[in-house]
Amino acid sequence: MHKMWWKILGSVLVLYATIAGFLATVPELPILHETIRNLYFHVPMWFAMIVLFSISVFYSIKVLRSNNPLDDIKAVESVNTGIVFGILGIVTGSVWAKFTWGQAWSFDVKQNFAAIALLLYFAYLVLRNAIDEEQKRAKISAIYNIFAYPMMVVLLFVLPRLQDSLHPGNGGNPGFNSYDLDSRMRMVFYPACLGWIIIGYWIYTLLFRLRSIDKNSAL
Amino acid sequence: MNLASQVKYLLKKELLLEWRSKYALNGVLLYVVSTIFVCFLSFVSVVSLTWNALFWIIMLFASINAVSKSFLQETKGRQLYIYTIASPFALIISKTIYNILLMVLLTVIALGFYILVFDYVPKDLPLYLVATVLGSLSFSTIFTMVSAISSKAGNGGMLMAILSFPVIIPVLIVLIKLTKNAIDGLDRSVSLDEIGLLLIINVLVMAVSLLLFPYLWRD
């Protein structure tokens, strides 16, 4: 039981964020109206994705040092989970964009770069499929993963700041926290972020355990 | 033998091999020239925005062809031989320097021919030249490492494109922005951000390549 406290914490936080996200009062703003509630779902997806990809890079570095096949499974499973969160982030963003910007894909820089960042990780998975030998696959894909990570950081955090974007906080738009992330919304937003990160980590550990059982029974 | 002299010898070997066959330079040069000519025949006259984008697309494919051969071309036996006598650092540095030399030469010739054929001169030609040199620098550092990864993975050409496109897109976006400034003849202080970002990306890629290549090389 004492090992499970973080899983309970994650579930409670996500439950709380979902219920409070739909029921709590939010500031009434033009254009955004009630869609502002999507903040509790759209943004945490990206945080969870970044955390999972960082975990993956951490284990990729470990693979290079230890050549442990379990570390390789950890690296690939966290990428798999991260991609799911990335796709969810894009989908929730598109729904939000449909109602506020007028169309689901507005060719906003952040939308485009997020899609390209996902392409990087699809390329990582394709690279894994291209190599048959297990040891070699672990090593080469770990190298590509570490090589791609700084590029993803540039894509998601540096380049959008150089261009105009429809997202808040870019291109002359005021950031969210300046007017609408008031203290009431923060009470839901921060728990939502933490909760989704924990849930993402949980899914990743489940996938990892599944894959390692598969691997052991295959031997 | 210390690193500097190893790099010198390996670079000399690359240049000598190239000079004897002149395959890479002539082949890629012909590729670029014919692509530019085909583009001219199909577009005839273009607006400045298309002119710029077209140039970078042509250079992207030409440089993938030019740089990808650097590792894919080496036979297994020669790789083993170099592995026994030289350090991996010397190898990746020499390959990168050779590719930079090749790419800079290629890009400058291509730019001259492109300007000649389309009869269009950017307003700020020196800045455009700086941008193309920076572009060929980034193309060579990134593609050298990716070609090393894809050559180790086995099936070359296809994987090379899949792995390198998501990595090169951020660089390409910055390059197109920088060259557009040059075409519009904006004040040079506007472009300092982009130049700095490109240099940072190059340093980052070089550092990551140097750290990772020894692991990749050791089979």
Outline:
The complex is a heterodimer of chains A (219) and B (219). Chain A is mostly helical and 219 residues long. Chain A contains 7 helices and no strands.
Supply database-style keywords.
heterodimer, A: 219 residues, mainly alpha, 0% strand, globular, B: mainly alpha, Heme exporter protein B (chain B), membrane (chain B), heme transmembrane transporter activity (chain B), transmembrane helix (chain B)
How would you describe what is shown here?
Chain A: It is a multi-pass membrane protein. Chain A: Its main location: membrane. Chain A: One of its GO terms (cellular component) is plasma membrane. Chain A: Required for the export of heme to the periplasm for the biogenesis of c-type cytochromes. The complex is a heterodimer of chains A (219) and B (219). The two termini of chain A are 32 Å apart. The longest helix of chain A is centred in the C-terminal third of the chain and has 36 residues, at 183-218. The model of chain A has no long low-confidence stretch (mean pLDDT 86). Chain A has seven helices and no strands. In chain A, helix 3 (69-100) runs antiparallel to helix 7 (183-218). Chain A is an all-alpha fold and 219 residues long. Chain B has one domain (3-217). In chain B, helix 6 (125-153) packs antiparallel against helix 7 (156-184). Classes of the chains: A mainly alpha (219), B mainly alpha (219).
Order of helices and strands of chain A: HHHHHHH
Structural class of chain B: mainly alpha
Number of helices of chain A: 7
**Helix percent band of chain A:** over 70%
Radius of gyration of chain B: 18 Å
Largest sheet of chain B: none
In the predicted model, the low-confidence regions of chain B spanning at least 5 consecutive residues are none
